Amino acid sequence: MLTFNLTLSGSDLLLLLPEIFLTLWLCVVLCLDFSLKRITHQQLAYLSIGGLGITGLMLIGMDVTGITGALFKNMFVLDHLALFFKILVVLATALVVFMSIDYVRDFRFFKGEYYCMVVMSAIGMMFMASSNDLLSVFVTLEFSTFGFYVLVAYLRDDIRSSEAGLKFFILGVFAAGLLAYGISLVYGETGTMVFSEMAGNQGSYGLAIGFILIFAALGFKIGAVPFHSWIPDTYQGAPTPVTAFLSIAPKGAALAILIRMFYVALASFKPMWVVVFVLASIVSMTYGNVVAIAQKNIKRLLAYSGIAQIGNIMIGLAAGTKQGSDAIMFFLLTYLFANLGAFAVIIAVSQVIRSDEIEDYNGLNRRSPFLAAAMLLFLLSLAGVPPLAGFIGKLYLFVAAMEQELYTLLVVGLVNIVISMYYYLIVVKKMYINEPTDPSPIAASMPIKVAVYVGIAGTLVLGIYPGPFIDWAVDATLMFSNIVAPVAALSVLPGS
Amino acid sequence: MGEYALLIILFAPFLGATALVFIPRKEELLVRMTAAVSSGIALLASFYIFFAYDTTKGGYQFVQRFSWSDELGIAFYLGVDGIGGPLVFASAILLFAGIFVSWHIKDRIKEFYIFLLILAAATIGVFMSLDLFFLYFFYEMSVLPMYLLLGVWGSHTKGYLSMTDPEGLKLRDSVGFIFNFASNSKEYAAMKLVLFLSAGAVVALMGILLIYHFSGLHTFDIVVLREKAHFTGTLATVIWFLIFFGFASIAPIWPLHSWSPVGHAAAPAATSMLHAGVLMKLGHFSIIRVGYEILPETTREWIPVAAILCVFSIIYGGLVSYFAKDTKYVIGYSSSSHMGYIFLGMAALDYISLTGAVIYMFAHALATSMLFAMAGWVYDQTHSRDIPSLGGLIERMPFIAGAFIIACMASIGMPGTVNFIAEIMIIMGSWEKYPFQVVVAMFGIVLTMAYLFKMMRGLFYGQMDPHFAHSADATHWVDRMPLLLLIACSIILGIFPGRFLEVVGSTVGPLLDRINQVTPLITHNTQDLLH
Questions:
Q1: What is the pTM of this model?
Q2: I need a labelling partner for A17 at 20 to 30 A (CA). Which of A2, B259, B301, B321 fits?
């Protein structure tokens, strides 16, 4: 029986400060939008970025000073893990707002609301990073997805966008149903909602089915095969900045939940879920990379590449160690810069040529050396080529898998690097080798350039000097060093 | 300043490339000068380490170590031994020469020099890495610039251009050319090269990860692994094969060679020079650095594999060269044939032959890059690489013809060039263990003579097509200097090899002692580097 005695002190509220601040700021921005007639959408965008910036500083401050704690009977935890993912989400959101400014200019209506929806989703995802309980997982997950349902279908006149919105909504609601059903099963079996209290439970079929359903719902969020079917159409149809947002922020937040759930609640069943993740990872990587080869649209290409990248990320989950989660977090950082950067370039290009076909990237190097070089860096980072960030991220994941002696996974992962090289290089070929049909230059606007520069800086810095960032990830997961015993885990086989 | 020499060599090209990013593309002379100056600095510093290397002390010298990630046990750890030092020197020479050879490139000069500098710097990085992670890091980093250098500034082969029918056009422009072996486009060559080398690289990476995990030392440090890690049984064999074939794919050993001649043919001159000159040696070097150093006993057991495969390399490469009609194919296959000698020298595990193999790496770098530079010059002048259609060019380009003859002599291994010393050492050193292979190698030398003389005659003697009457000789110092530099290095070291032998021998000796006797695991020259 759950009972709530809500006693909140001032210091408790401090833990919620970033979320509270951002919510208030969001309301202010919304009010300014409809009360001031002359305020432009650019000003609203910069206001949102300002709010996100302040939130980000607060989060960094909390991370540095080590303000941590738990609220509402452990429903909401603020630890370094949560802070890491919150900073990730805020950073991604700020970059996405930068990328959106040009794009939103062409909207015919609801320009101001767009930013509000983006920031609202961000708040949802910040809560996701902190949720430590199945109920809060459900609520925060749906809260953040709600914003996305609207955002994906934002181009009302575009049939693709509406189609994308509908597909995303139907499958999203279906996933929510699975999640709710899974939660009810798990609660029925264990009598508790909080992850940390489930740790010692005996296994049962109900529990297993429940967690598989929950995993399916989260797998839908991160786009892991076989829950990926919405990804290509939604990515292609959604407004490009929304696609960019969708490609990183919800994945990060959902991974925070996955890490908590499997590392804390299910630590004792590790030998079983390792098999699940190994399979999901192998299938995701291979499927994503092989199908990406055939793509003609750059957004679809990145959609499939994203499926493959999630496969890479699940290598870390399959390792199931602290090192695995560190690697995931570091990889997400590298993925954030490379992927958002790539989408920023796509937006800049599509603003001029009005197309996302890879064919139309012919001769981009002649039309805009800056954008072509940036895209080259981002794609090579995604492919995992040194000295770019993606290489270190992948290597870290492979090291984590190697420490657990997951050879099959490693071999598949390494082969997939070579496969992925092919389709990323096809885009590079179009940009650098082919001659443009229309040689007119492509200029990028200032806000897009900011996003691209941040992407380049992140990709290079994380690749050349990753030490501090690795340490950050390592420090954020210190709590797992006790829970998951890295070496002993493998000797415990199911049934033994 | 001495101890920072390696940092200077490594970072001069990188900083040059970074500076180029900020130089406006209209300033063409400034772009070229920046590239030339940064590579010149690297060349001077590598000249310094070649002569300042202390041969009585041996081991790794000019060591620089910076912590990079303690979590993963990675350090930015640089140092050269008697094998890495000469190869760093060779890379710096080729980079410097390559920048002048490509002085007349018109299209996107800035990008060209950026990629060329990154390629060379990454290659240099491999030769001086004492950390497995960074060895792989630079190795993989050197592959990608090749894609763009080949794809953008390269050239198609004749077969490609003759495909003008609609079906052929579709075929040649299609990107699904992985399995399209008929297409000889530069894009095909570039993609094939990258995929082959990446595939090889991930195989080697698997080996590196196995070493990292099973050494139990939680470090990528080669010096520590070399002294403390001990692998036995199946595991050691598996690791050795992953390392050997992973790195041998870039070397390239038969049957993993097929990317190489295609890549050579498509590449612009400066890239072919670096590719054939030093990029391929990354393979041999990495096998020695990782395989020989960390797995000495397994190397002793399994290196005969190399001795078997090198026979095919030598014969196959030589025969294809003899029948090839494209100048760059001839030189490309001749390179992959000559790589067989290096494997032979490595396989014999003999002091003389391994020293010869290392010297051969250096010598081959000089000779082949000369040939490629001049094939590039001929192509620039005539827009043809088709040997039967060329001829009589000696009238138009006497300097190039003269230099070409010297380069052929060097490639064959005439006394007076450093190639002679290397070949003779390989043959003498391997005779005892692999007499059959030595006979094959002798035959290979005869074949080399045959196809190089054939090409020389085809290009420079006989009847000249009036079509090529406009072609010009290299008269400007910018064009002559790189060739003269390469010839001078080859001949000076060929006549005075003493220093070179000392440098290489100081490392090869202890290395082979470890492999052949195995017992003294900690050798005197690396003890002070353990920490």
A1: 0.92
A2: A2
